[in-house]
């Protein structure tokens, strides 16, 4: 390893400090975000590749801090997962998502992201049950997106919790598929109805033969388990067409629609009708 003349420690520390300081600041501010009304949900279309009709939306959290401006969930969700506040944020997101979805003119499937921490540190089953009851949202339209990280904690009685929520009528999607553990053994053990193939596969899906084989293998496997596949991160018409040719039925991405406010989604639905 080539060493720089200047001390690497001295060059590194101020940046570490800034990152750490921002993290601390976000952590403190995040606790106030709900009462200050700084959070909202945006909704991104889930689309049939054949006719580009919208069958559902994925709900995504947004935080606009009054001084710091918009902060990405990619930055604040991991902080909230670490300190446990994701339990509160997640409950807020579930209630807000269902409430807003009920105002739309068409009844779409509503996919909401849930974190493993909501299972382990919160009572997700009760939270989902209460939100369904409070809002009156039809449970068979509610889909919960969870990532493979959930399978790390083997002490969690995940399967039992999922079965309880399935008894309410909810369904489950395995999010970011292909980025994690690549062990497929657990898949049939849990009641997933959908797999969301991560956007990293789409990026090169036109160029790389390897990615195409992965996509084909995932489609084949999903069919075997009776699950459907949604491909994430579709940005170009070429990608959509190529994926459709490969046998993909459902997609999500900037090509079909950016994440948008509840009101903008409602106008999009009216325009499409
Ligand atoms: P995710 O669940 O994989 O969500 C999809 C992300 O991909 C979203 O980023 C979305 O805006 C982005 N995306 C959609 N289409 C495209 C595309 O065509 N190209 C590209 N490059 N990106 C696209 P976002 O909204 O920034 O969210 C980032 C992550 O934060 C989410 O990834 C999810 O892991 C987490 N997150 C967001 N909202 C929630 C929430 O309510 N609860 C939990 N637990 N996590 C959330
Ligand atoms: Ca997701
Ligand atoms: Ca995803
Ligand atoms: Ca993700």
From TrEMBL:
Identification of the protein by name: Bacteriophytochrome cph2
Coiled coil stretches, renumbered: none
Keyword terms of this UniProt record: Membrane, Transmembrane, Transmembrane helix
The keyword Nucleus is annotated on this UniProt entry: no
Keyword Lyase among record annotations: no
Highest rank taxon of the organism: Bacteria
Domain called EAL: residue spans: 23-273
């Amino acid at each position: 390893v080539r060493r720089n003349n200047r001390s690497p420690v001295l060059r590194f520390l101020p940046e570490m400090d800034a990152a750490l300081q921002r993290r601390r600041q976000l952590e403190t501010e995040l606790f106030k975000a709900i009462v200050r009304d700084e959070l909202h949900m945006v909704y991104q279309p889930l689309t049939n590749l054949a006719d580009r009709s919208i069958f559902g939306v994925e709900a995504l959290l947004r935080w606009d801090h009054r001084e710091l401006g918009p902060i990405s969930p990619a930055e604040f969700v991991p902080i909230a997962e670490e300190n446990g506040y994701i339990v509160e944020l997640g409950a807020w997101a579930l209630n807000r998502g269902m409430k807003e979805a009920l105002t739309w003119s068409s009844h779409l499937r509503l996919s909401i992201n849930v974190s493993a921490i909501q299972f382990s540190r919160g009572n997700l089953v009760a939270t989902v049950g209460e939100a369904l009851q409070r809002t009156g949202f039809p449970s068979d339209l509610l889909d919960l997106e969870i990532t493979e990280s959930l399978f790390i904690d083997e002490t969690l009685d995940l399967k039992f919790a999922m079965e309880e929520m399935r008894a309410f009528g909810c369904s489950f999607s395995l999010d970011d598929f292909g980025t994690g553990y690549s062990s497929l053994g657990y898949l049939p053990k849990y009641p997933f109805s959908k797999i969301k193939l991560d956007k990293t596969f789409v990026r090169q899906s036109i160029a790389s033969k390897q990615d195409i084989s992965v996509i084909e293998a995932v489609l084949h496997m999903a069919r075997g388990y009776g699950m459907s596949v949604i491909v994430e991160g579709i940005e170009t018409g070429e990608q959509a067409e190529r994926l459709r040719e490969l046998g993909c039925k459902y997609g999500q991405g900037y090509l079909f629609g950016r994440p948008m406010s509840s009101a903008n989604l409602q106008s999009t639905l009216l325009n499409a009708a």
